[in-house]
Amino acid sequence: MNREQASRVLQQHGALMVLGVLVIVGSLAFDSFAKPENAASVVVSSSFLAIIAIGMTFVIISGGIDLSVGSLFVLGGVLAAYGSQYGALVALLLPLAVCGVVGLLQGLVIARTGMAPFIVTLAGLLGVRGLMLAISDEGATTYLVKDRAFATLGQGEVLGLSYPVHVTIALALVAMVLLQRTGFGQNVYAIGGNEQAAALMGVPVRRTKVYVYVMSALLAGLAGALNAARLSSGVTILGIGLELDAIAAVVIGGTLLTGGAGGITGTVAGVLLLGVIQSLINQVGSLTSAFQQVVSGVFLALVVVAQRLLSKAQRLT
Predict the structure, then answer these.
(1) What is the C-alpha separation between 115 and 220, in angstroms, rounded?
(2) CB hemisphere CA count around 26 (13 angstroms)
(3) Cα radius of gyration rounded to whole Å, the chain
């Protein structure tokens, strides 16, 4: 294996390697860390972030960014809880419809006006948060999930894992195929690598951009709906900073912030890595949960520096 191949492997699978090391160290250091109950807790708590991060992966590979997913997550939860009084189908479709429209509007503005995704989705973050507060009387009203079938979607289990985990696994598999084995996935990579060259090759740049932002919004709304089913209520104080966690997981997983490179496997590994770090901090006991943000921030900075060095090494070879 030459230097270029080694650099590519480290960039794509570095998070998975670090995850494996942390799991081994945690298992040796703490008796309770390797217990099935703790592993299941990490996986379940990470599943909602993973769903959001899958959509964020497509956005970042295309060269964009989506800051609205945290607000869409909490809006999806509130709408799902509100809609549950009309049945499970409404509880699931209402947040998907509203969040999908938000993603469509953001995608159209970005694709047709050329405005920076950071600005457009930042406006979306604020606007969606305001819409959620208007629906919930500025957070004073918490809607409860009234449909038992919908609540089961978030609380039921199969093979010892809750339904949201199985949904996450299914979505990850579909996303892998979509990204690696379809023309749409190749278009996403092409646009992130060089948008002007992609347009000259006949890639439908505008349409592809709209699709990735709709996908990101739909997955954020779905994650919020599943979380509401799990909690049996549409909690209005959730989702703050969740977009940063999703971006961190995607970048830690090896996706370049500049676009054009990345994958779903790395993103899932990045999400689990953040979950394992939180679990290890809880195992220590003397550290607060806020310490995870410090560790995650330092780790993210190291990953970005490593990506830059690896990219430079690939150009030199």
Answers:
(1) 22
(2) 24
(3) 20
Report which of 225, 253, 251 is spatially closest to residue 239, judged by C-alpha positions: 225
Q: H or E segment at 171?
A: helix 163-181
Structure tokens at 99: 């969040």
Determine whether 237 is exposed, middle or buried from the number of CB atoms within 10 Å of its CB (0-12, 13-18, 19+).
exposed
How many CB atoms are closer than 10 A to CB 316? 9
Condensed to tens digits (0 to 9), the pLDDT of residues 201-259 reads: 999 999 999 999 999 999 999 999 999 999 988 888 877 888 988 998 998 888 888 88
Give me the phi and psi of 144, to 5 degrees please: -100, 145
228-238 tens-digit pLDDT: 999 988 888 87
Q: Letter for the amino acid at 191?
A: I
Report residue 15 as tokens: 């998070």
Distance CA 132, CA 205 (A): 32
Task: Kindly report the length of the chain.
Answer: 317
